[in-house]
Amino acid sequence: MLIDTHTYIGHWGFRPLPWRSTDGLLRAMDEHGIDQAWVASASAILYRNTHAGNEELHAEVRHHRDRLTPFAVINPTYADWEHDLAVCQEEFGCRGVRLFPPYHRYALADAACRELVAAASARGMVISVPHWVEDDRERSWLLTQPGIVPVEDMAELARAFPDSRFVFHSGLGFSSTALGEKGGVQADYGLDIARLTVFVREELPTLLAWLGPERLIFGSGMPFTSVDVPLFKLEVLDVPAEAQEDIRWRNAERLLAGSG
Known about the structure:
The chain is an alpha/beta fold. The protein has one domain: Metal-dependent hydrolases (TIM Barrel). It has 10 helices and 8 strands. It has helices at residues 22-31, 42-46, 50-61, 81-90, 101-104, 111-122, 151-160, 203-211, 228-236, 241-256, and strands at 3-9, 36-41, 68-73, 96-98, 126-130, 165-169, 188-192, 216-217. The chain has an 8-stranded parallel β-sheet with strand order 1-2-3-4-5-6-7-8, with helices on both faces. β7 (188-192), α8 and β8 (216-217) form a beta-alpha-beta unit. The radius of gyration is 17 Å and the shape is globular. The chain starts with a strand and ends with a helix. The model has no long low-confidence stretch (mean pLDDT 92).
């Protein structure tokens, strides 16, 4: 069993993605042995009204809920986001919210973001925060702000909501924050392995040693990035079979349990 906690469908404003539809994502999952995926709208990241992307996502995945779990993209600085959140959970069946602070011009510490996290958590939804969507070196010149969410801000957000569930994607440097300390954050959370280093700096082995396998999850970021890299990291991890299964799917399933 393998669950990918970080995928997208939809369009991107600055380059063609390898696929844009559910069919394309499902083919990619089949090719790489991925059984289930948590998916959000790539289009919603750049739409002025993110909810239009959520509507498109719902239309795409509603007949594939056995394999695809929708996550809503909500912009807490946009008018009437509370209505969008309610529709996404109650009508679309979204199990989590994926946040994009650099694209929507807010910070994780801002009051508007904290209100959204509180509201989504009260609904039992998982809070998903990518460290980045694409490498800043590859971003369009039209995007003038850095596209990275500091991992220190992720740690502070999780500390502020001890009863919430979080997943943090495509990050580096977690080991230098409270997220890398056993008991440093009371909230339930997962760190995806997509960019954690196995060799040289060895952050992934360090987190395994400090936290155990229960905080690590599989995420790829596809189609923005290749799934082959995190799959390779799974292969080279020197951990028992039970720990492999925790990282491959059990931790993700635990985080999702009871949401929505």
